[in-house]
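Design request, tokens follow.
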């Protein structure tokens, strides 16, 4: 966080561009200082989202295929660093950085060399083989429809894809469109518990979107610099919404019957909580009765329910609920 005090103006400019859609108009990195300030603030929050996704994948027993990794639209390189930090470098023959900004690629490469000195890193933008693990992070809001199509085409040639976006309605819906386009080519690993069409596309679900929440680490609440930065930027450190998609041409481990992925946050009433869950039958809102499941009801009220569970249901009422054992 040391760099953000001197980069406040740059961060405010960058934030305005992201919020107003101006980031799509071209390279917004004016200097290495911009990248350093971003990497220590906004980039860290994106890194926490990647930590959430990678921990979920580890729980599912998923590991990346050996070979090259392509960090597409790398920015400051936070996705690549989070990926290597979780999976290690042993199976990665080379990490390739791709970005429209030469300055961003050079910054990301330098940071990767610092954290993983033995890792082969190239800021060439092009892997030796498209049969790689493709990392994509927070790019859909900056791409035109044609560019999104081109990225989907590139994704289709990868062996595995790990794609993380903001948890907004527009980003989620765009990612759902990518899922539907690619699910005939890949197995869907996460967040979905099934291989069928996305339940969010069913009639009556037009206002809904697939989003989840990562947890901020303790230092976000104990380090006063984070509190000052959040106040300056108008950001709630407790809220880390994200949408994500993980695809693999290798078949994933089978999930047990009744596996459900929680969507969003529970809506808690006096005597029950409404849980939105996605499974092979679609997206449904189910009632969790307080008198039947007092501990789970308390967890729902405190937003501590596990995001991956198995349910037994009678109509819209949950009659059995357990975290999915990983």
């Amino acid at each position: 966080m040391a760099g953000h005090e001197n980069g406040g103006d740059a961060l405010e400019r960058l934030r305005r561009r992201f919020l107003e859609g101006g980031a799509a108009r071209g390279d917004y990195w004016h200097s290495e200082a911009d990248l350093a300030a971003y990497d220590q603030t906004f980039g860290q929050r994106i890194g926490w989202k990647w930590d959430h996704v990678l921990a979920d994948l580890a729980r599912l027993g998923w590991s990346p295929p050996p070979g090259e990794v392509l960090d597409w639209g790398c920015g400051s390189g936070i996705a690549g660093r989070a990926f290597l930090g979780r999976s290690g470098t042993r199976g990665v023959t080379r990490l390739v950085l791709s970005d429209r900004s030469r300055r961003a690629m050079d910054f990301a490469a330098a940071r990767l060399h610092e954290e993983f000195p033995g890792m082969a890193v190239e800021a060439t933008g092009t892997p030796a083989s498209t049969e790689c693990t493709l990392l994509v992070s927070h790019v859909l809001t900056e791409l035109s429809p044609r560019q999104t199509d081109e990225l989907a085409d590139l994704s289709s040639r990868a062996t595995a894809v790990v794609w993380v976006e903001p948890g907004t309605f527009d980003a989620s819906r765009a990612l759902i469109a990518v899922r539907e386009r690619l699910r005939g080519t890949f197995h869907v690993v996460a967040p979905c518990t099934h291989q069928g069409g996305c339940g969010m596309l069913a009639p009556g679900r037009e206002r809904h979107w697939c989003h989840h929440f990562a947890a901020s680490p303790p230092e976000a609440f104990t380090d006063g610099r984070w509190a000052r930065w959040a106040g300056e930027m108008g950001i709630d450190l407790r809220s880390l919404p994200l949408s994500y998609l993980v695809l693999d041409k290798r078949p994933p481990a089978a999930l047990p019957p009744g596996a459900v992925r929680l969507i969003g946050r529970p809506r808690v009433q006096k005597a029950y909580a409404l849980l939105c869950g996605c499974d092979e039958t679609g997206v449904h809102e189910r009632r969790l009765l307080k008198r039947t499941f007092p501990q789970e009801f308390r967890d729902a009220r405190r937003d501590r329910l596990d995001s991956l569970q198995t349910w037994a249901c009678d109509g819209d009422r949950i009659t059995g609920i357990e975290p999915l054992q990983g």
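Comment from the thread starter after seeing the answer: thanks! The chain has two domains: 8-248, 259-323.
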